[in-house]
Amino acid sequence: MNDYIFDTGSELGQDHLDHLGRLLDTPTTWRLDRLGLTADMRCLELGAGSGSIANWLAARTREVVAVDIDTTQLYDVAPGVQVHRYDLRDGLPVDGPFDLIHARLLLLHLPEREQLLTRLVDALAPGGHLVLGDITGRPLDVVAVPDPADRDLWEKIQHLSHHVVSPARGVSWTWARETPERMTAAGLVDVDVMQYSLTSAGGTDGCLLHRNLNQQAEPLLLAAGATQDELTRYRALMLNPRFRAWFYELLYTNARKPA
Ligand SMILES: C[S@@+](CC[C@H](N)C(=O)[O-])C[C@H]1O[C@@H](n2cnc3c(N)ncnc32)[C@H](O)[C@@H]1O
């Protein structure tokens, strides 16, 4: 069984990935750019989603292997990107060594994250970089609401999403903060962390992503105790420009295998 909550191959799945690209490709490419990418590098992009980062890497390096359990949205990849449909809970579909391994918003979803981390460290070339970006469980505090009752609605849906539905499917909201220690324990060096965090208003990518995730997880949220009326009001709130809340805090942890 695939524990992953969302359906990457669906239309909502495509919108989900498009929102992520618009929200996060800028901090991701900023982070990757500062590692000193070179044209001879072999890269592994895991949970590749829409392929936006695989394509960005392909323009700067020699080879990119892009892996996802559902490759439906990887239809427009650059020459130099090899696509593999593979369940990463079973390990890696290709052998290393890789000079760069990157995964964004993947390991927090996988209950087997510790075993995968070990495999990624094994697959790194000496001196190679591991770069993992995951979001934390920091509360998504409200900044502005059109009506005081909207705050309670927002908090109820966040509670069900983050404390009931997603943990039952193996999501870890502590993994992002644990990653530096795990990388050090796995023998990596030069461990460094970047934090990225913005607020998001109704009708913009952050709130549209919340709305999208709420639609994709509807059966799970109803089973967890949300009502259909609450879901309808929440989705309308996510379109209202008078609503604003903190968006997820993204932590990027990167480290190197000793040369
Ligand atoms: C939240 S999305 C992130 C996509 C992309 N990395 C980004 O940040 O835009 C998680 C991705 O991991 C993929 N995924 C989930 N479980 C997986 C598994 N067991 N093996 C490989 N890929 C998986 C999903 O299909 C999806 O594309």
Describe this structure in words.
With 259 residues, the protein is α/β, with parallel strands linked by helices. The protein has a single domain (11-256), classed as 3-Layer(aba) Sandwich (Rossmann fold). It has 8 helices and 10 strands. The protein has helices spanning 11-33, 52-58, 113-123, 148-168, 175-185, 205-216, 218-224, 228-237, and strands spanning 42-46, 63-68, 81-85, 98-104, 124-135, 142-144, 189-196, 199-201, 244-246, 250-256. The strands form 2 sheets. Strands 3-2-1-4-5-10-7 form a 7-stranded mixed beta sheet, sandwiched between helices. It has a 3-stranded antiparallel beta sheet with strand order 6-9-8. α3 (113-123) links the parallel β4 and β5 (124-135). α1 crosses α6 (205-216) and α4 (148-168) packs across α8 (228-237). The radius of gyration is 18 Å and the shape is elongated. Bound molecules: S-adenosylmethionine (SAM). S-adenosylmethionine binds next to α1.
- Numbering strands along the chain, what is their spatial order in the largest sheet? 3-2-1-4-5-10-7
- Which percent band covers the strand fraction? 15-25%
Radius of gyration: 18 Å
One letter per element, helices H and strands E, the order comes to HEHEEEHEEHHEEHHHEE
The profile of the biggest β sheet is:
7 strands, mixed
Apparent shape: elongated
What is the number of beta strands? 10
CATH architecture group name: 3-Layer(aba) Sandwich
Name the CATH homologous superfamily: Vaccinia Virus protein VP39
Bound molecule types: S-adenosylmethionine
Low-confidence stretches: none
Q: What is the helix content?
A: 25-40%
Overall mean pLDDT score? 97
Q: Termini distance?
A: 38 Å
CATH class: Alpha Beta
Class computed from helices, strands and strand pairing: alpha/beta
* Count of DSSP H/I helices: 8
InterPro entries: SAM-dependent_MTases_sf
GO molecular function, one term: methyltransferase activity
Protein name: Methyltransferase domain-containing protein
GO biological process, one term: methylation
